[in-house]
């Protein structure tokens, strides 16, 4: 029986049971990062109402999907985020991925509204490199750092720092970033991310095998997460998670997320756009069958013939 008291689950043709929903709530963003994949959704401008979001999350919860990741665009741009959070059904884990430029002064209201934790995209601690990566002329790095402090203070923890590895930009900064996270004594975790090739970002790609070798060399313990079989390394008492989404059969074979686009479409895979299921106008009664349809279209992107066809 799942947490909502139902025996129903969503399992795709490859045996992958959906455990979490990754929902974009806006495509708008106040930054313009050089590599942004925008959750695989480019061009759509519509946004779901609070009611539509809540209906979708409830329908997922009825299938035992009790983890929600809110993303975007920049989700903090939506002023009704607190209203969304406080209207959700009870879930095991509600998290937000944000660039944190608008977090300062808001962490506490997000926590009170029901947010459990946040991930903050922070690729560098160097103000000049930060401006280059985000293509933002203003010096907003200090505000991001204050936002992180505030999130830790109000208990939006563990805060994960998302660092996309970028050749000749931040690849030499891993140690510095690790020292930064260690200052928070377990409340902040470093998450290293292999760059996926969006926006002609290929020249910035860093060899993930080399990074992994380095992490292994320094680690005192290594474990594997259920989701994507991501590896977690303990280095000098601090946790480092490594996300390797590129050409990774194991990563996709263990993908347990269903996505929702900002304009209300169920999206079976980050990298595929011809299989979306529109639920933006669906009634609560119609949602279960639409979820089943979307999940029947889920294909592990790497490790299946589809990816060699595209
Ligand atoms: N290819 C691919 N990349 C993903 C998927 N889910 C997350 N990612 C990438 O993982 C990195 C971290 O994403 P976050 O939004 O911080 O979330 P997360 O780490 O996946 O989730 P939590 O660990 O639950 O906080 C980003 O680069 C995402 O693009 C996925 O299903 N497929
Ligand atoms: C698309 S952003 C949306 C949320 C928010 N605006 C932020 O930046 O955290 C979600 C995550 O995707 C990551 N991301 C974006 N483009 C990527 C790429 N090409 N390869 C790997 N990760 C990427 C970002 O670093 C961020 O952690
Ligand atoms: S802040 Fe997030 S959504 Fe905005 S451009 Fe950067 S990665 Fe993309
Ligand atoms: S199948 Fe692979 S690429 Fe597609 S969403 Fe899942 S992990 Fe990402």
Using the alpha-carbon principal axes, give the shape: globular
Strands of the largest sheet, in order across it? Answer: 7-8-9-6-5-4-3-2-1-10-11-12
- CATH topology annotation: TIM Barrel
**Which CATH architecture is right?**
Alpha-Beta Barrel
- Tell me roughly what share of residues is in helical segments: 25-40%
Keywords: 4Fe-4S, GTP-binding, Iron, Iron-sulfur, Lyase, Metal-binding, Molybdenum cofactor biosynthesis, Nucleotide-binding, S-adenosyl-L-methionine
GO biological process, one term: Mo-molybdopterin cofactor biosynthetic process
Binding site for GTP: 22, 69, 97, 160, 257-259
Family: Belongs to the radical SAM superfamily. MoaA family.
How does this structure look, described?
With 310 residues, this protein is α/β, with parallel strands linked by helices. It has one domain (20-303): Aldolase class I (TIM Barrel), CATH 3.20.20.70. It has helices at residues 50-61, 81-87, 107-113, 127-134, 141-154, 174-182, 208-218, 249-253, 287-296, 305-309, and strands spanning 20-24, 67-71, 93-98, 117-121, 159-164, 188-193, 221-224, 231-235, 238-243, 257-260, 265-267, 277-278. A twelve-stranded mixed beta sheet has the order 7-8-9-6-5-4-3-2-1-10-11-12, covered by helices on one side. Helix 3 links the parallel strand 3 (93-98) and strand 4. It is globular. The mean pLDDT is 94. Bound molecules: guanosine-5'-triphosphate, S-adenosylmethionine and iron/sulfur cluster (2 copies). The site of guanosine-5'-triphosphate (GTP) has 14 residues, from strand 2, strand 3, strand 5 and strand 6.
